[in-house]
Amino acid sequence: MGAPLFKSTFQVKDYDLDATLDSGQAFRWTREGGKWVGVIAGRWVSLGMANDGLIVRTTSEPGDWHWLRDYLQLDVEYDEIVESFPDDEAIQGAVKACRGLRLLRQEPWECLASFICSSSKQIVQIRQIVKNLCDRFGEHIAVPDESSDGRAFPTARRLARCSEGELRECKMGYRAPYVLGAAKVVTDGGVDLNALNDLPCAEARRELMKLPGVGRKVADCVLLFAYGFEEAFPIDVWIGRGLNQLYFPKREPNRKQLEQFTSTYFGPHAGYAQQYLFHYVRTVLEKPVRGRALAKKK
DNA sequence: AACCAGGACACAA
DNA sequence: TTGTGTCATGGT
């Protein structure tokens, strides 16, 4: 039979669970009957909202909830963050439309491997690749219902033992050698993921970019979503188009110029601003036109 | 049925 | 240093 389930409630305010778990920063959360089911640090977890309270069910012994508070970032000063944004129409509109959207604090290796797989992929496909990896190579974890199959995200050590073909069977295509190479470097200490917390953001970024398949954008995602470097501002195709539309409707700057702009303009919590803009352009601005409106001109 | 996706990389200029 | 073709796979 399944593992016993422990329930606890956390008082939260300004926390939009749906937006947070479904905004393209983490890829394993699934909706199951009004609740979100996922895995945090090898623990099966179910999350739900009711009466301004966050209801948590987990197979992990209650007591020290630090792993949960840290992952969900329950203790951040939300108001201070959104009030630090510049007072322009675009970002203020995004905050107004997405109030309660949060950044998570994910495990570095899972975040890193997932975003190596993310390049030039739609979010639904990234989720499928990550699921394939977990189903094939993740350790079994305790689950409340024996009919379900809970697994942790596979360790770097485990993936380093895979063949490139086994990874390609997870449908990650040309990213397979990247994931394999990164897993090997991380496993034999070429890059120490546990040491990046103590580095300045720029140095941590340089370390990450030593890994195969990790360029500026993937590195920034990991810096922001796993290490909490809030000055990191990942620029993908959506953010690039969004910034062009909202801030530079005529000029159309290139990627480097956008990096310059975003490194100062949005302030010390720029990474949060980035997540608001990302969610905003995807759920509000471009919904009716599905991208065509901003196609390359000429 | 084309077009594009939370890009990185080797290679050109 | 900045710009282009290529790389799998599948959603819309």
Describe it.
- The chain is α+β, with helices and mostly antiparallel strands and 298 residues long.
- The chain folds into two domains: 6-76, TATA-Binding Protein, CATH 3.30.310.40; 77-298, Endonuclease III, domain 1.
- The protein is built from 14 helices and five strands.
- It has a five-stranded antiparallel β-sheet with strand order 1-5-4-3-2.
- Strand 2 and strand 3 form a beta hairpin.
- Helix 12 (237-247) crosses helix 14.
- The chain binds a DNA duplex (13 and 12 nucleotides) through residues 24-25, 115-116, 118-126, 128-129, 168, 171-176, 178, 212-218, 221, 234-239, 254-256, 278, 282, 290-292, 295.
Brief description of this entry?
The chain is of the alpha+beta class and 298 residues long. Helix content is 43%, strand content 10%.
State the main characteristics.
298 residues, alpha+beta, Endonuclease III, domain 1, 2 domains, five-stranded antiparallel β-sheet, 43% helix, 10% strand, DNA-binding
What is the fold's blueprint, element by element?
Layout lengths: L5 E6 L5 H5 L8 E3 L2 E6 L2 E8 L2 E6 L7 H7 L5 H6 L5 H9 L10 H9 L6 H15 L18 H5 L3 H5 L7 H12 L13 H8 L7 H10 L11 H11 L7 H10 L5 H16 L13
Antiparallel strand pairs: 1-5, 2-3, 3-4, 4-5
Helix pairs in contact: 4-14, 5-11, 10-11, 12-14
This protein binds a DNA duplex (13 and 12 nucleotides) through helix 6, helix 11 and helix 12.
